[in-house]
Amino acid sequence: MTSAPASLSANFANTWYADTAIAAPACHSIDAIETTYDVAIIGAGLAGLSAALHLAQSGARVVLIEKYKIGDAASGRNGGFCTNGWASSGPAIEKLLGPDNAAALDALASEGLEWMRARCFLQSYSACQPVNGCLTLSLFADDPLPIAQSELSDFIKGPRYKSGSVDHEGFHFHPLNFLRCLTAECLEAGVTILQNCPVLHIAESTPSKTLITVGPNQTSIAAKTTVITTGGTGGRQFKKLSKLLVPVQTFIAVSAPMPEILAQHIPTPYAIADTRRAGNYFRKLPDGRLLWGMGISALAAPSSAYVTRLAMKDIAAHLPDMAKEMAAAKVGLDYAWSGTMGYARHFMPYIGPLGATSFCAAGFGGHGMNTAPIAGKLIAEVISGTANRLDPFQSVPKQQTFGTLGKTAAEAYYRMIRGKDRLKEFLA
Hints:
By secondary structure, the chain is an alpha/beta fold. Helix content is 33%, strand content 25%. Strands 3, 4, 5, 6, 11, 12, 13, 14 and 15 form a 9-stranded mixed beta sheet that branches. The longest helix is centred in the last third of the chain and has 25 residues, at 403-427. It is globular and about 65 Å long.
């Protein structure tokens, strides 16, 4: 297996996605780029790439700047689920923003899902390996879903699951390959893309021009408009945005190949997640492995060994018969990693103006595969002057997270809801 660059933190440990990815398209050398652009986008995740593509297609001269390699952060290392909705629930959004804004946001989430679906199932995106269908499971008897427990055996052999529902519009895929396909599309559209290029300084030189100093040689790039799409991994240059977000870790492990065991215990091709806020999500991979996601933490990234132990414990708790067969066949976990997401206190992202000539799209809270691309499109529409559909986001309150205090509070919150879930399941 290949190793992650030494400059990356522990949560950037090697992933199954990286070891099975198509070749990354060649991006630009900083020594051979122009120094003035219409738009500079900082952060080449899903939101940044989407914004860049839409802007380039509208005729703008765009530079996209990524601190690491494209796909090293959340957009390229997540569970690979694409479903409808936002991180916050429909009732919570309506309470926070009102029924009209909630309805508008519901429509935008659906538009984002359709945009992702349309691309993933293109022949030019075949490396994304999309598979239709997502199954939601409940561990609680008082939370009945349409599929009764007696019918769940057609989908999964897990005795703790009480009911389920199938989302036929949702799908799962290889997120890193998707980013690489989208990167190639951006390059073809004329976007200048820099990777392994940290932003060192941002300063407004005039009311209509921002100077961005990037490494490693302190090159200056001027842009009329700046878009910040750094998610939960933004640094000290983005203090205004980082004060509104808590960086949160979640964990993924991938087993050694075990197609026969998976076929017996997880006969469905659907991706699977349970209904708990900090629950499990898992799916079968094309090479016969199990991807298992679990856990949420606002603390520092744990070791791969810790993630491995946590995953094996979770698998044994929820699929005990499968865990026994894995042990008997000496099937272990080949990969274990974590990733950083940005969460706001209200679980809604910040999408819209950040300053007089700057915009942001960040804080998707683990539900960015459909919402991040539509956020990029919305910002591109405003900058290009074709439309302005940002009104629902202007009502999203900017709530401070208070740094270390906010992280501590977030960790306490997640431990509380995990405890509540365990107690509820025990009492049932």
